[in-house]
């Protein structure tokens, strides 16, 4: 029963990582850039939740406002920082993304200070069935993450906008010739990724009721690792990588001898997978025409 509890907790944490990783992998797959400011969108969502939850006492309303605010923030970042660099070198875009990350963290520190703040959204108690016990927070996080992933997969594969995203991801120039607005699709992608980051931030606060200017840094790095493990640019790969990383982290933390080395083991897995399959578990090697 203890193994089952650890496994479910791992899936729940992995669901949070997967939601963040989806933002990374969608932006990379469509815009062909690594948005290293994505983790800081989680922080923006965390502070938004804190402010509106303290004002209203309604966790769902606060999370909804955070989603909207993060979408606006993500779209503004894309329009002001990344769109002017559409034809620039990948290095210039990468440096800009790092600059945007530090800018968001610095603004948050100016507004809210550097102290960590507690935000306790809810205490739903624990589900106990015999020797099996798991918190309702974990159940809500896992079920919501699975529902969001299914909805996103259906959106990408079944809707007109989703198919346009796949077209832009496959060949941006050909998609443009077919009448698809590449700039609009990239903006929509940033909006979806930012919304996922806000939702992941809410779930992360449920697990760790602590908000700070760096709260999105380590989850963002781990989610990026999950995206690379699963196959950067692959939506199923981001889901698989996130769930796998969450299970490994939770299993390591459950074993006292391995707990201090949990992060090292996670990044060690990344190195091993890159050595064995550089494109990631579900990543596909693309041939470039010369």
Walkthrough of the structure:
This protein has 290 residues and is mostly helical. The protein has a single domain (2-276), classed as ABC transporter involved in vitamin B12 uptake, BtuC, CATH 1.10.3470. 73% of the residues lie in helices and 4% in strands. It is built from 11 helices and 4 strands, in the order ααααβββααααβααα. The protein has helices at 2-31, 38-56, 59-82, 90-112, 136-158, 160-170, 172-177, 182-207, 217-230, 235-254, 262-276, and strands at 117-118, 126-129, 132-135, 210-211. Strands 1-4 form a two-stranded antiparallel sheet. Strand 2 (126-129) and strand 3 form a beta hairpin. The longest helix has 30 residues, at 2-31. It is globular.
Compact description:
The protein has 290 residues and is mainly α. It is 73% helix and 4% strand. The protein has one domain (2-276): ABC transporter involved in vitamin B12 uptake, BtuC (Orthogonal Bundle), CATH 1.10.3470.
The CATH topology turns out to be ABC transporter involved in vitamin B12 uptake, BtuC
Mean pLDDT across the residues is 86
Radius of gyration over C-alpha positions, nearest whole angstrom: 19 Å
Could you describe the largest sheet, including whether it forms a barrel? 2 strands, antiparallel
Under the CATH scheme, which class? Mainly Alpha
* Count of runs of 4 or more consecutive helical residues: 11
What is the CA–CA distance across the termini? 56 Å
Helix content: over 70%
Question: What topology, given as strand order, has the largest sheet?
Answer: 1-4
- Residue share in β-strands: under 5%
Residue ranges: pLDDT <50 for 5 or more in a row? none
Structural class: mainly alpha
CATH architecture: Orthogonal Bundle
């Amino acid at each position: 029963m203890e193994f089952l509890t650890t496994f479910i907790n791992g899936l729940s944490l992995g669901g949070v990582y997967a939601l963040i990783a989806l933002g990374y992998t969608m932006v990379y797959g469509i815009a062909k850039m690594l948005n290293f400011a994505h983790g800081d969108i989680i922080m923006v969502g965390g502070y938004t939740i804190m402010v509106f939850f303290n004002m209203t006492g309604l966790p769902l309303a606060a999370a909804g406002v955070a989603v909207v605010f993060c979408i606006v923030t993500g779209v503004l970042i894309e329009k002001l920082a990344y769109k002017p660099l559409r034809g620039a070198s990948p290095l210039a875009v990468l440096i800009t993304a790092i600059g945007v990350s530090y800018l968001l963290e610095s603004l948050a520190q100016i507004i809210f200070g550097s102290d960590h703040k507690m935000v306790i959204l809810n205490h739903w108690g624990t589900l106990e069935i015999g020797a099996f016990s798991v918190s309702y927070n974990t159940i809500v996080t896992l079920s919501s993450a699975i529902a969001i992933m299914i909805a996103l997969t259906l959106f990408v594969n079944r809707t007109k906008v989703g198919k346009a995203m796949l077209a832009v991801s496959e060949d941006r120039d050909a998609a443009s010739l077919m009448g698809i607005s590449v700039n609009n699709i990239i903006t929509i992608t940033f909006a979806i990724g930012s919304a996922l980051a806000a939702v992941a931030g809410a779930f992360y606060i449920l697990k760790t009721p602590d908000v700070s200017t760096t709260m999105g840094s380590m989850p963002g790095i781990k989610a990026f690792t999950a995206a690379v493990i699963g196959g950067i640019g692959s939506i199923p790969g981001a889901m698989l990588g996130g769930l796998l990383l969450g299970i490994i982290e939770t299993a390591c933390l459950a074993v006292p001898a391995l707990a201090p080395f949990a992060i090292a083991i996670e990044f060690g897995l990344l190195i091993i997978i890159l050595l064995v399959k550089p494109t990631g578990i579900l990543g596909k090697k693309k041939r470039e025409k010369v």
